[in-house]
Description:
heterodimer, A: 410 residues, alpha/beta, FAD/NAD(P)-binding domain, seven-stranded mixed beta sheet, five-stranded parallel beta sheet, 28% helix, elongated, B: 104 residues, Glutaredoxin, 4 helices
Amino acid sequence: MSELYDIIIVGGGPAGLAAGIYGSRSRLKTVILQKGSPGGQAATTEELENYPGFPRGTKGPELMKAMADHAISFGTEILNEEVVDLDLDGEIKVVKTRSGKEYQSKIVILAPGASPRTLNIKGEQEFRGKGVSYCATCDADFFEDLDVVVVGNGDAAIEEAIYLTKFAETVTIIVIHDEGILDCNKVSAEKAFANPKIKWVWNSVLEEIQGDGIVERVLIKNIKTGEISELETNGVFFFVGTVPNTEFLKGKVKLDDRGYIITNDKMETSVPGVYAAGDARVKYLRQVITAASDGAIAAFAAEKYLAEEETFKEQVLKAEKPVMVAFWSPQVEESIAAIAKLESIAGKFGESVKLVKVDTYRNQRVASRYGIKEIPSLLLFNRGEAIAKIAGSLNEEMIVPYLNALITTE
Amino acid sequence: MIEVDKTNFEDEVLKAEGLVVVDFWSPKCEPCKELMPHVAKLAEKYQGKAKFCKLDTAANRRLAISQKVLGLPTIAFYKNGEKVAELTQEVTVEDVEAKLNELV
Lengths: 410, 104
């Protein structure tokens, strides 16, 4: 068993690294567990044109190296560990890795990212590393003066196709849509249309990859006519979206039916103290900047969570004398009045009773843990145990007898 | 690990007796650079049992393609000059060691 961390971050892409920066800068003991080197998918993306402040010519690997160095400079540890199992239910979370080690923390931020989607086309598996590739930066230079095919037409497909033209003689993009229609952004589309090395096959899908040991040709199917044509090529690059790396999280946190982690806008998952960030989360836009944003929010929310839990523990659960916990909200007028009344009651009891106020607008967690549905509500604690709940209008006649009883039994 | 290129690949790998492991990599391939130090450790551990080489495919493209390597990272295993096994893409050092134990 390791020492206790405040935050364990699973995954070292931009989401995990940003969470590391925010976490360790808040003086929280933060570790990133990352299979292989940090950077995630961004580290294998050559051209990164839209990360603000980093203009054209910024390379994915360089930006990710800078993010990792940034996190380390604030004290984040980055360990080469592949997470295989987690126990998230308790107050202390336990994370197990392939090397057999166990790590413990109060908070877990899940940022496992996503992987390129495979289509399971005939030959796709057989020719992996033999001309079939999902990583242009890794494999582009094999195809100098050769011909390649790109499958897909989103941002990644078109931008990586443009990158491939620096090496390949021709890049043929197979697009499922009608002529001229691409799913990518307009700037990239215009660039691609103007690029003389790029050729287009519209209304079509890849049917099969063939060759003898290495890729030699592909079969392309026109979805309008059903016609199948043959194209000689040396490589096939797939950019057809991604799938979340959340297999190991099934049954641990709530996932949607495609396997993405469900969170609220504070990046909280279905499990208290467990957050998610980046591409593995249900979200609208999956980019380096939104991943980093998620990471920042998750670490910030985690810090607040730890502070609130710590405060509640100190002031309520570990208190030696009876505690009145008042649940109020600045939006509920009645609850503001109730607080004033409770303050006056507490005043009459002097040192023998304590009043703790919980603003449910900012902290819903404690309220929901104790089943508080009505605001205002009052919980009476004695030696860490909730012994009475009074919901709605709080009057002195109801509360004082309780307190008297508690104090006289002391 | 022995650095091989078009001038010595034949002597070091194809004409070599016993087991030779070739790590195909390139300076642009991040997963390759991450894997390489782990393979280097295996080279020490299996000293005397297998020879370990590395080949920069960016500088030796034709040679790589002649070995039917068109994707990185690739770890190829040769026995008496014949390619007997190959691991490619999403390769972990555990996979490499498992394959080594199978072949040693």
